[in-house]
Amino acid sequence: AQSVTQLGSHVSVSEGALVLLRCNYSSSVPPYLFWYVQYPNQGLQLLLKYTSAATLVKGINGFEAEFKKSETSFHLTKPSAHMSDAAEYFCVVSDLPGNQFYFGTGTSLTVIP
Amino acid sequence: GAGVSQSPRYKVAKRGQDVALRCDPISGHVSLFWYQQALGQGPEFLTYFQNEAQLDKSGLPSDRFFAERPEGSVSTLKIQRTQQEDSAVYLCASSSRTEGNTIYFGEGSWLTVV
Q1: Which of A30, A69, A85 shows the shortest CA–CA distance to A77?
Q2: Which residues of A touch B41 (CB under 8 A)?
Q3: Neighboring chain B residues of A50 at a CB cutoff of 8 Å
Q4: CB-based burial of residue B20 (10 Å sphere; 0-12 exposed, 13-18 middle, 19+ buried)?
């Protein structure tokens, strides 16, 4: 079975500071891992995905995530936060192509000017 | 179409009323998912189709919820005798193995039961 744990339901950072959103997964098979972002009153948008090609994955808007098998983690980072990054971020795991996707509970990012 | 399209975007239903939510997936996408997202929560899985076959409906909260995809493209999520606890955003998503298993979401149908 697959599951995802996002540590910290709310994260606040100053504009220009490092963003770190934590995600740990549980999977009995090599996982497919994703980060999605949800801006207020909007749908879910893919930030980036890991599909075993490379452990460091770069996504849109300057975000990246590193797959660490030994730590079963897939933390999301961005070197410098921007006001427009304020949103809800979801870590998602799937085991097989086209199979069910499991969502974390989400982390709400606030950027302080 | 260019993306997953859902309708209606907003629906207010009186308690006890039946509602139908429509999803047009990305053309050619075999897999289609329905999720329920309550206010302040993450999406919760409802059901999953591969073409017209409903392979998993374990997330449907009660027998008042029913989903279909008769021709393997458009899907409808039906909720009978709506209750206040059904108020949520209903998200549809589709995916294709040829696109690296990425799921693409629609903007959701916001259901409010009064």
Answers
A1: A85
A2: 105-106
A3: none
A4: middle
Cα–chain center distance at B57: 12
Selected residue of A42, A90, A101 to mutate for chain B interface (largest B Cβ count, 10 A) = A101
Interface with chain B: mutation pick from A29, A36, A100, highest number of B CBs within 10 Å = A100
The identity of residue B114, as a single letter, is V
Contact A19, A61 (CB under 8 A): no
For residue A108, the cross-strand partners are A10, A88
The residue type at A48: L
Instruction: Point out which residues pair with A58 in neighbouring strands.
Output: A64
Q: Tokens for B28? A: 């050619």
Mention every residue, 6+ apart, whose C-beta is less than 8 A from residue B64. B79, B80, B81, B82, B83, B86
For B26-51, the pLDDT digits (tens) are: 999 999 999 999 987 889 999 999 99
Give the N- to C-terminal CA distance of chain B in Å, as an integer.
Answer: 33
Q: Are A32 and A95 in contact (CB under 8 A)?
A: yes
Listed in order, strand segments (DSSP E) in B25-108 are 31-37, 44-50, 53-56, 65-68, 75-79, 88-95, 103-105
Convert the pLDDT of each residue in A41-96 to its tens digit: 788 999 999 877 788 999 999 999 999 999 999 999 999 999 999 999 999 988 76
